[in-house]
Specification:
mainly alpha, single chain, two-stranded antiparallel sheet, Fic-like fold, 4 helices
Length: 70
Amino acid sequence: MVRFNIEKKLNKIVNWESIDKKLYLQAMERSPINTLEIKTLIEHNLTDDFSLDTFLKGVETSYYYEIEYD
């Protein structure tokens, strides 16, 4: 749901490929206490490239993050 809000309001998507996995996972662990870190990380990695390649790389990267996190 957050993804669609960013797309609609900012006309941008998150470029997950440019987000460092370790920084992302650390920010996610701390996000229940302080959301500023995760918001800043995502904000600095927004793109207006809506290409299929960017989308698919984002899906691939998110799977990579989840597999390592388990």
